[in-house]
Amino acid sequence: TTGATTLDPGFVNTASCTSAITFIDGDEGILQYRGYPIEQLAEKATFIEVAYLLIYGELPTQEQLDRFSGKISRRMMLDERLKELYRSFPRGAHPMQVLAAGIMALGAFHRDNLSVHDPAQVEEASLRLLGSMPTLAAYAYKSSVGEPFLYPQTRLGYVENYLRLSFGTPQEEYEIDPDIVRAFETLFILHADHEQNASTSTVRLVGSADANIYASMSSGVNALSGPLHGGANQAVLEMLARINDEGLDIKEFVSQVKDKKSGVKLMGFGHRVYKNYDPRAKIIKGHADQLLRKTGASNALLDMALELEETALNDDYFIERKLYPNVDFYTGLIYEAMGFPAQHFTALFALGRLPGWIAQWREQHADPARKIGRPRQIYVGEKDRTYSPINER
Ligand code: SDX
């Protein structure tokens, strides 16, 4: 019994850990960070405020938030030599490859906070990661488009810095639009944690071996890059673009999805836990329409996504399988409207998910009884065989 719900024995057998960070009720479509409903946080909090909540367990006072934000802001600038790493990648390298390498490299540049046992080093590394991530992600985008890197500015907020580092150039200052900043605060909050998903479980498993926090976070980025996981936000836009480019009728595409032999999936739909509408998708859908109008981006793909959702939600194949839109279904439309190329969408997911990974990694390390992760298996292979000389095989 966790207080919130009584777990049946079967569930307990599959549970990989106990945690007090994020609560999901997949049947009811409920998501809470440290007990706060995602709907309230998405609408009222800032991303750094939620990062504080996830990591330390309580919403910060103004003084705590100012101190936390200041420490993060002073760690946004990267070691100059890290730029050489970016310049060594080919132009078409995927931003998630560059980001995973950048985080690993960060650990090499900050070897004085690699300890997993010294709380002061874990705190410093957490702040370093939170500060560097927007710069690492923005530089991955800049190097992919061949534009020069800007420097972060302590006078700007976290999201403002990220947007300016991504879209500003030495020729033209990036004009901060408060509506766009608010939308990205909400988007990053919605991605901030999600209990034991594939990338968070990866972070925990790698961390359980006492690998340093940078190695654990870099592993999380690699797991998240998979199209079945965070990579789905890129795959959704590629799916919509294919439907559009091939002039497919929505019903025609949905019948391809239902034909198992086609191997075609409705990307952005379905979830391991949610068997109801993903509460995050609901919130993002509302922002998509408002932001596309604001940026003047064409609504064609949004209209297509809305028709796709409507068709699927009224089709028995999806109803019987409890397949609903998940967090990735609408995000790509917003990121593209903002000017990000599809290849960069999952780096945005990683930026949002970082505080959750850090909180989960620290929660695991705070447990004095913790053990190294060691999943077992059901062995179904041959046993007790005798070696035969090669000329007798
Ligand atoms: C994220 O875990 C998390 O919390 C992840 C995440 C987070 O915040 O960290 O929420 C982020 O990863 C969201 C998911 C993004 N991925 C996608 O949108 C990719 C498309 N979705 C699917 O690949 C799939 O739904 C998964 C991978 C998300 C879940 O896979 P499962 O567990 O195999 O799905 P399931 O057991 O619920 O499937 C039941 C049936 C199966 O068909 P049958 O064998 O019963 O005939 O539904 C089918 C599946 O084949 N199905 C789909 C489908 N998803 C499931 N059919 C078509 N299109 C889909 N998208």
UniProtKB/TrEMBL annotation:
It catalyses: oxaloacetate + acetyl-CoA + H2O = citrate + CoA + H(+). One of its GO terms (cellular component) is cytoplasm. InterPro entries: Citrate_synth-like_lrg_a-sub (IPR016142), Citrate_synth-like_sm_a-sub (IPR016143), Citrate_synthase (IPR002020), Citrate_synthase_AS (IPR019810), Citrate_synthase_bac-typ (IPR024176), Citrate_synthase_sf (IPR036969), Citrate_synthase_typ-I (IPR010953). SUPFAM superfamilies: Citrate synthase. The keyword rRNA-binding does not apply. One of its GO terms (biological process) is tricarboxylic acid cycle. Pathway: Carbohydrate metabolism; tricarboxylic acid cycle; isocitrate from oxaloacetate: step 1/2. Keywords: Transferase, Tricarboxylic acid cycle. One of its GO terms (molecular function) is citrate synthase activity. PANTHER family: CITRATE SYNTHASE. Belongs to the citrate synthase family. This is Citrate synthase. It comes from Tessaracoccus flavus. The lineage of its organism: Bacteria, Bacillati, Actinomycetota, Actinomycetes, Propionibacteriales.
